[in-house]
Amino acid sequence: MTWGTIMADEMDKFDGLDDIFAVARATAPEPTDDLRRRVLTDAAQVQAGFEQLQPVISGAVPAGGWFRQVANALGGWAGLGGLATACAAGIWIGFAPPATWPDPASLVIQEDSGFDLFQSEEMAVLMAMGEG
Amino acid sequence: MSISTPRATGPGGSVVTQDAAVPDETLLVIYARGDAEAARELTDRMLPRALSVATRVLGDRAEAEDVAQEAMLRLWRIAPDWQTGQAKVSTWLYRVTMNLCIDLQRKRRGGTVALDDAPDPADNAPSAAEQLVAKARSDALQDALAQLPDRQRQAVVLRHLEELANPEIAEILGVSVEAVESIVARGKRGLTAALNQRRDDLGYNHG
């Protein structure tokens, strides 16, 4: 018999442990009304979140109309974001093109063009002759 | 055990949830569908357990209340995703509570521990002497529990105060059943050694 065994046997002579466990079980702490109220408040708040998410969770009816369907077809919000970025870049390039690119605005407005589409001076002469 | 089917919930959330035969996880599903009565019934069933183990493990009533509230909050949050048939709700709650206690104990390592949060016994009552002895024994157990290593304290509380079976304790603590038996045995030896020194104070005679 080792010293450890002797010590264990000596300790085991204390036979009140089960009694003390029983006392502790009988005096288990009870939740106070305040704690119960806090827990139920949490429950109500979390539950309110579930109710807002209910249509999404159930998945019974797809949310949204044609816009949602088109968005989904384009890859959802990520796809729409990319599309919007590309559009914005196109508009910006249209107004402020890089220096090496022709200015599309000047092609339309033609203020600096030397070519007179209607040859306005000759037209004015012909009109004067016609009046005369 | 026969399990009665709860009534369908209406917009007002009325359901027979106080029937003890309604399983905990059924109540959780009903709660997730918006029934307030299910929350009250689950609170009645689960909160005392979380509070009890947290109080015994932490030795501090205020901290135990915070832990119990947090454990219940996590229960509410997981309700819509609860996988029926996987684990008992009470087992899940015990595990979450224990993990929260472990986190708290790690944070406060080196701090002081308040041990005496039990209410004082009523004075001048006929059973005042008995109540004093009971309080002394309960306090002595709390002191002795506080001296145990964390794992032993948790296992002893679950086994002898919550009276759970070893397989469930194993699931809560994430160890084997054999390990639970060993941990509980060592914990009881530690408690016995600590309480043996106060045998006379606690009203136990040598013999």
Structure description:
The complex is a heterodimer of chains A (132) and B (207). Chain A is mainly alpha-helical and 132 residues long. Chain A has helices at residues 3-12, 17-26, 33-58, 66-73, 76-95, 104-109, 120-131. In chain A, helix 4 (66-73) crosses helix 5 (76-95). The N and C termini of chain A lie far apart (144 Å). The relative contact order of chain A is 0.03. The model of chain A is unreliable at 1-12 and 56-67 (pLDDT under 50). Chain B folds into 2 domains: 13-109, Orthogonal Bundle (Rna Polymerase Sigma Factor, Chain: A); 128-207, Orthogonal Bundle (Arc Repressor Mutant, subunit A), CATH 1.10.10.10. In chain B, 62% of the residues lie in helices and 0% in strands. Chain B has 8 helices and no strands. The chains are: A mainly alpha (132), B mainly alpha (207). The A-B interface holds A 8, 10-14, 16-17, 19-21, 23-32, 35-36, 38-40, 42-44, 46-47, 50-51, 53-54, 57 and B 31-34, 36, 39-40, 42-43, 47-48, 51-52, 55-56, 61, 64-65, 68-69, 72-73, 76-77, 79-80, 118, 134-135, 137-138, 140-142, 160-161, 163, 188-189, 191-193, 195-196, 199, 202, 204.
